[in-house]
Q: What sequence folds into this?
C-alpha cells in the first residue's frame, strides 16, 4: 500500500465501506506514514463537522399535522 | 344503512399503524433531503406531503420490515424529478468532470492541520454551500453525510452503480471542502495560502 493508493480509499475508509483486508492495510499505512495519518485525521474532522452542521433541521410541527390530516383526515 | 358492530381492528387500522411505525418516523429525514433538493422550505413541505401520500397509497407494495427510509427516499426523489423539477425549472446541465476539486489539506497543513477552522463555520453557511453544489453531487452528499446511508443504499435510491456513488461522494466532499476553505479565508478564520 503506497500513499496514492491509500488516498484513493480515504473516504471509503472513513465511511467504513472497505473490506476488512483493505481496511487493515490502510490502518497499517496511516500508522506508519505520518503525512497520510494527519490527512486522514483532518478528513475525519471534516466529515464529523459536516454531519453535525446538517443534522439540525427537521420537519416542522405544522408539516407533521398537515401530513396526518391529509392521510388520516385528522 | 348503519353497521351496528365495529370490529376492533380493521385492515385500515393496521395499515395506518404500520405506516406510522415504519414510514412516518422518517418524516424529518425526508424533509431534510427535500429541503436540500428544492432549496426552499415551502417546496420541501409540499414535496414531503406528496411523497407521504404516494407512499401511503403504495404501502401494500412495500415489503414490511425492510428499508422503509430507502423506499421513501426513492419515492421522494422520483416525485422531485418527475413533477417538481419539471414544473419549476429545467434539469441542470452541468458537466461534473469540469469541476475541479481543490486540495485543501495541502494548503492548510502547516497552519491548521487539525481543521480547527471548521468549528468557526456556522450551519447556515455550510447548508448554503451544499445548496450550490450540482444536483448530482448534492443528492449523493446529503444521503451520505446528512442521512448516514451506506453506498449500497445510495446506489439503489439514485439508481447508479456503487462505483459512481464513491466517485461522486469523493468529489462532492472535496469541492465542498474547497469552498468552505475559501469562505474561511475570506472571513479571516484562517490565513490560507495567498493565490
A:
Amino acid at each position: 500500500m503506497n500513499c496514492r493508493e491509500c488516498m484513493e480509499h480515504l473516504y471509503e475508509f472513513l465511511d467504513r465501506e472497505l473490506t476488512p483486508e483493505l481496511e487493515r492495510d490502510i490502518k497499517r499505512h496511516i500508522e506508519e506514514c505520518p503525512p497520510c495519518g494527519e490527512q486522514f485525521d483532518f478528513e475525519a474532522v471534516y466529515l464529523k463537522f459536516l454531519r453535525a452542521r446538517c443534522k439540525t433541521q427537521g420537519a416542522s410541527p405544522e408539516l407533521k399535522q398537515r401530513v396526518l390530516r391529509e392521510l388520516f383526515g385528522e | 344503512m348503519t353497521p351496528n358492530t365495529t370490529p376492533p381492528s380493521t385492515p385500515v387500522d393496521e395499515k395506518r399503524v404500520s405506516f406510522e411505525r415504519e414510514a412516518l418516523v422518517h418524516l424529518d429525514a425526508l424533509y431534510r433531503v427535500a429541503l436540500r433538493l428544492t432549496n426552499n422550505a415551502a417546496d420541501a413541505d409540499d414535496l414531503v406531503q406528496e411523497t407521504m401520500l404516494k407512499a401511503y397509497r403504495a404501502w401494500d407494495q412495500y415489503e414490511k420490515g425492510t428499508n422503509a427510509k430507502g423506499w421513501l427516499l426513492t419515492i421522494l426523489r422520483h416525485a422531485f424529478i418527475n413533477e417538481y423539477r419539471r414544473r419549476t425549472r429545467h434539469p441542470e446541465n452541468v458537466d461534473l468532470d469540469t469541476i475541479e476539486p481543490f486540495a485543501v489539506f495541502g494548503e492548510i497543513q502547516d497552519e491548521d492541520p487539525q481543521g480547527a477552522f471548521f468549528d468557526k463555520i456556522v450551519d447556515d453557511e455550510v447548508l448554503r454551500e451544499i445548496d450550490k453544489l450540482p444536483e448530482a453531487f448534492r443528492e449523493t452528499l446529503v444521503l451520505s453525510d446528512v442521512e448516514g446511508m451506506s453506498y449500497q443504499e445510495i446506489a439503489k435510491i439514485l439508481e447508479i452503480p456503487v462505483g459512481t456513488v464513491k466517485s461522486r461522494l469523493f468529489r462532492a466532499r472535496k469541492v465542498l471542502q474547497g469552498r468552505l476553505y475559501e469562505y474561511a479565508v475570506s472571513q479571516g478564520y484562517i490565513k490560507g495560502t495567498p493565490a
Notes: Chain B has a mean pLDDT of 88. The first helix of chain B runs from residue 11 to 22.
